[in-house]
Amino acid sequence: MSELLDAAYDAAAAALRAAPRVVVAAHENPDGDAIGSLVGAVRGLRAGGIDAIGVRADADLPREYGWLDDGLATTAPDGTGWLLLAVDCGSAARIAAPAGVREGSDFVVDLDHHHDNTRFGDISVVDAGAACAAMMVRELLARLGVTITPEIATPLYVGLVTDTGRFQYSNTDARAFRAAAELVALGAKPQEVFQHVFETVQASKLKLLARALGRIEVRLDGRLALTSVTRADIEETGADEAATDGVIDHLRAIEGVEVAAFIRETAGGPRYKVSMRSAGGVVDVSRIARAAGGGGHTSAAGFSSDLDRAELIDMIEREARAGGA
What we know:
It is a single chain. The chain is of the alpha/beta class. The chain has eleven helices and twelve strands. Strands 1, 2, 3, 4, 5 and 6 form a six-stranded mixed β-sheet that branches.
């Protein structure tokens, strides 16, 4: 760990200790790392004697993570003057919090592992080498002297196992495996996590996946794979927004694919949300996302767009070709 990062962790811990109240938020359309980091941070801060609450902007968490929700608020707390701890957010615009949360905060700590993080916090703790934000939450809690219980270890393990793709993605390194071993030793149960997160699939999700797989397009001599789902697909299959999670992994697994892109029509604006993955690390998909106003990691990124579907696909192909695909 660099001296700069070490000092940032210490500064963040000191700020959290001094804050009268801490409000913890994660990013929009939360995934396993966002939810695991959020819940793990709240539970850990409370265990350390810090007045902390977790907030979310969405009415419901994705089904596979709902079991972790032990009271995340959907409204801002009373009063003002709290410290806002933003976990797994690459920019302030990505923070998903009820109206009034950001306005009521006097101080912001930005804890994140995205390499293109905009350093939006009064204190920004950014470790692009961390496999997930949950690992960073674990480090922050250690600086606070928090004893990790199974209730804290479990959501942090969820963040780790999901953001590494069950320890298959390129961000899976020795640090990630050591963190997993530690969290299991502290009480996280991999089998229970696996059952909750990966073995609660609804039939509607598989029906939606079938539509997406039937719509795959392969371009750039097999180096780019794309697919999409419409609002009609989601409504007719009886699926929800969270059911689209994981579709892109099927594209990424196609032999010869270097860039996978999944396009989802939204219920409101912008018209589409695009998720991208890089297979083998050949192409930096965060560069493609930034060109469209989004961001993310080298191997996983996304953006929103109001282009029509054909224009959107042409743009992705053009940017993927320019990026080396």
